[in-house]
């Protein structure tokens, strides 16, 4: 029996559907999915099994034009994830086509991919007519020599099985890299922090979600099988703290409840979640915060 295993990098612009595709492939929620762009900060690995193949997906941050240190570190992590992978899948949104961002990715792809196989996945195909899809497919394949092209809807699942089957057959032969029942290689502390940050992102508006971060300070196993989790939400200004707390603490209570419920579902156990909000004006310039997010602080240097 021949087994295969390897890393597959999902790359694309912010909001192209990488996290949704990862969660669909793995069959569980391991990556933040929100309506806001640039929400994936760390290179989250999700693990899926297809026949005798173990597919380790690297959900990279979206590739975009960076403006600040955190942006630069995220973009470096995205290209780094692609450079380290065995296979690369480029996601392009069908209804947006070849944007400036896609142009930049196509320019950088030959150097990063080298001789490795790159598949094109045109996502959100339900949003456009078939003639638009065909024209976009032709244009993209003229711009880069993609090994295969797939038409998918990551949200609805269309075409995802065909993509997963192809990836499974293209991975290098070798032993599996993770235990069979493991679906992600992020520590639970980081997954818990990401879940809380997702609930904050969904609840808050405009720029604030990008001005905050969540860290799991303490994880205590209890004798009754439950766990106590203490998390800190770092914000940059006093005014932000008030927004996160909400009137009479209503916002942070709602976030805590939603995050706790999702964590209980994910871990299949009772969770006691305690959130604190702290003002830390320069957290975007602190190396420790980047380590917590799985990013390299040095990558943020200009």
TrEMBL record:
Function per UniProt: An essential GTPase that binds both GDP and GTP, with rapid nucleotide exchange. Plays a role in 16S rRNA processing and 30S ribosomal subunit biogenesis and possibly also in cell cycle regulation and energy metabolism.
Record domain Era-type G: where: 4-173
Entry's Gene Ontology BP terms: ribosomal small subunit assembly
Name under which the protein is recorded: GTPase Era
Tagged with keyword Cell wall biogenesis/degradation: no
Region named G1: 12-19
Alphabetized NCBIfam families for the sequence: era, PRK00089.1, small_GTP
Gene label: era
Lineage, uppermost ranks: Bacteria, Pseudomonadati, Pseudomonadota, Alphaproteobacteria, Rhodobacterales
Chief place where the protein resides: cytoplasm
Region of interest called G3, as start-end residue ranges on this chain: 59-62
Residue ranges of the region described as G5: 152-154
Subunit field text: Monomer.
CDD domains xref list: Era, KH-II_Era
Keyword annotations: Cell membrane, Cytoplasm, GTP-binding, Membrane, Nucleotide-binding, Ribosome biogenesis, RNA-binding, rRNA-binding
Positions with a binding annotation for GTP: 12-19, 59-63, 123-126
Gene Ontology MF term list: GTP binding; GTPase activity; ribosomal small subunit binding; small ribosomal subunit rRNA binding
Residue ranges, annotated region (G4): 123-126
Gene3D superfamilies in the cross-refs: 3.30.300.20, P-loop containing nucleotide triphosphate hydrolases
Region annotation G2: where it falls in the sequence: 38-42
One cellular component term from this protein's GO annotations in UniProt: cytosol
Family: Belongs to the TRAFAC class TrmE-Era-EngA-EngB-Septin-like GTPase superfamily. Era GTPase family.
């Amino acid at each position: 029996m021949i087994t295969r295993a390897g890393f597959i990098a999902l790359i694309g612009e912010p909001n192209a559907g990488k996290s949704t595709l990862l969660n669909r492939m793995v069959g569980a929620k391991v990556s933040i999915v929100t309506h806001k762009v640039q929400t994936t900060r760390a290179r989250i690995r999700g693990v899926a099994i297809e026949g005798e193949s173990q597919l380790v997906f690297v959900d990279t941050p979206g590739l975009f034009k960076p403006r600040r240190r955190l942006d630069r570190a995220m973009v470096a992590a995205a290209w780094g994830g692609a450079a380290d992978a065995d296979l690369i899948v480029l996601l392009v949104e069908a209804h947006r086509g070849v944007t400036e961002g896609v142009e930049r990715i196509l320019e950088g792809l030959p150097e990063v991919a080298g001789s490795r196989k790159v598949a094109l996945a045109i996502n959100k195909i339900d949003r456009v007519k078939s003639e638009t899809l065909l024209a976009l497919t032709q244009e993209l394949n003229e711009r880069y020599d993609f090994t295969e092209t797939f038409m998918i809807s990551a949200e609805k699942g269309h075409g995802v099985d065909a993509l997963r089957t192809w990836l499974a057959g293209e991975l290098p032969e070798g032993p599996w890299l993770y235990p069979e029942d493991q679906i992600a290689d992020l520590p639970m502390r980081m997954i818990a922090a990401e879940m809380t940050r997702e609930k904050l992102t969904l609840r808050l508006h405009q720029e604030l979600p990008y001005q905050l971060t969540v860290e799991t300070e303490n994880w205590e196993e209890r004798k009754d099988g439950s766990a106590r989790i203490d998390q800190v939400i770092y914000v940059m200004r006093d005014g932000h703290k008030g927004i996160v707390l909400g009137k009479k603490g209503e916002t942070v209570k709602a976030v805590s409840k939603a995050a706790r419920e999702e964590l209980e579902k994910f871990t299949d156990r009772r969770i006691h979640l305690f959130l604190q909000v702290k003002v830390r004006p320069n957290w975007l310039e602190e190396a420790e915060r980047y380590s917590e997010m799985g990013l390299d602080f040095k990558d943020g240097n200009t």
